[in-house]
Description:
The protein is mainly alpha-helical. The protein has helices spanning 2-33, 35-63, 66-92, 101-113, 125-152, 156-177, 186-208, 227-253, and strands at residues 119-120, 123-124. A hairpin with a 2-residue loop joins β1 (119-120) and β2.
Amino acid sequence: MGATYGLVAAVFLASVVEAVEALTIVMAMGMTRGWRSAWAGTVAAVAALAAFTAAAGYALATWLPRTALQLTVGTLLLVFGLQWLRKAVLRGAGLRSRRDEDAAFAAQTSAALGVDGTTRLGLDWFAFTVTLKGVFLEGVEIVFIVITFGASAHDVPVAAATAAAAAVCVAIAGLLAHRPLSRVPEHLLKYGVGLLLTGFGTYWAVAGLGVFAPGGQSIAWYGGDWAIPVLIAAWFAVSRLLVRAAPAVAARARPHPSARVRRIP
Length: 265
């Protein structure tokens, strides 16, 4: 049950973050080039993502034995989680700028206004392709999270439904606000998602290491599923230490202003 709650929380929060960024692209294209083309690109991207999720989820769930699946899923979650956590640490330490949805919307709008229109199949092709590409790329990471979490918990439909619900909530909020959702605390959401992914990824990757042992049985964690919140707390503690240490490390890595640059003959 705890794994299911974690699945829903991680997928929902990650989907909200990516959906907010995708919404910025859709709104910029819709307001400048036409909503018909923007929605057509969105629908095409969502259809492609849904097909990819179904095919990859089925393949993972049926082709790999349970222990190998845990190892594969855990490794993928660790890769994605550490990427999200690394960016959150850098932002928290002031070494990486935080995403500004208003600035991103202005940049997308400016680019859309500066391109001549080309009509294909009754659609503004620029708006269609930009929306299709933007929504698809923002959704790919969510697809992998849905597949990995869903396959490991044997609940791909629940993970997919959670991602869809998050996207619908963001779309409704954007339509009601008539502007990008710049007030959504993306930094905190990404930080939370990174902790969830690394915590669950560690849990499943270690359990899946049993595939190399005689018999190929999963390695059991002490305390069972209760080890997951402990792992998340441990990753949180590590990330806070890194946030404090990162500025000093970055300062030492910078060349001193008085240092002379030696010319290579």
